[in-house]
Predict the 3D structure of the following.
Amino acid sequence: MGAIKLIALDLDGTLMGEDRIITPRVRRAIDAAQEQGVVVTLATGRMFSFLVPIAHDLGITAPLISYQGGLIQAADATQPLYRATMDAALVREALEWQKQRQARIVLYADDAVFLTERQESLEFYQHMLGENLVWVDSLDEVLEHHEPIKIIFFVEPEEAEPLRAELEARFGGRMEVTRSHELIVECNPLGVSKGEALRRLAGHLRLSRSQVMAVGDQDNDIPMLQWAGIGVAMGNASPGLKAVADWIAPPLEEDGAAVAIERFVLGSGTTLQASSRSGG
């Protein structure tokens, strides 16, 4: 196992909780890693504009992974390293399917979030989706002027897995379907995942997967943990993510991300034994 040169950190449930506070211990670990020359990036389903102030706050200058891997771009860069969009005709098909099912859907396009109804408070939507919210009469009309990046469905927790399976059966092979939150099922461009984005970023930095560590907490982090040389699941992670992890860190409340960085990057703990996962 080579020395870690790149750390990819999920955001919600990994670096911060509902209060969006990144604790001093986590900040110190990120600072120490960067001072040692290790590249740190954030990898999230959230939009790019949400990530920029967080990256500035943490002193992260590397390309950031947003939209589940649909965009790779540094906070201060004017052009992306990689960008993927969804086929408008496919999105229209999903919107028609949504109307028949009466599901709650949100469309991300051109770094804005488009909604047609407000069933929750403005604070709820800002917390879950970000600040750049636009209410419209029709999401179909948005496609006439904007490039779609992803769509998400809001569900009750017990409805998430059935809806994911239903979407997979209908659209699998044409778009990526994943769960990123207990209330959210996402559809992203085909081939887009945090794992594929991490592979692209590592290639850009001329690093091998053995030099990469990824930390996350939800099923959408599975491809990222599977690709990285060291895949770390938070103690509060989903069962699916824990099943593919090389190591399980303490939960968010116990600064699990910092513990992982201290253990595998800063040398504060025993080193990881060779991975038992197939393919490394």
Residues 88-189 form a domain with the Hypothetical Protein, Haloacid Dehalogenase-like Hydrolase; Chain: A; domain 2 fold (CATH 3.30.1240.10).
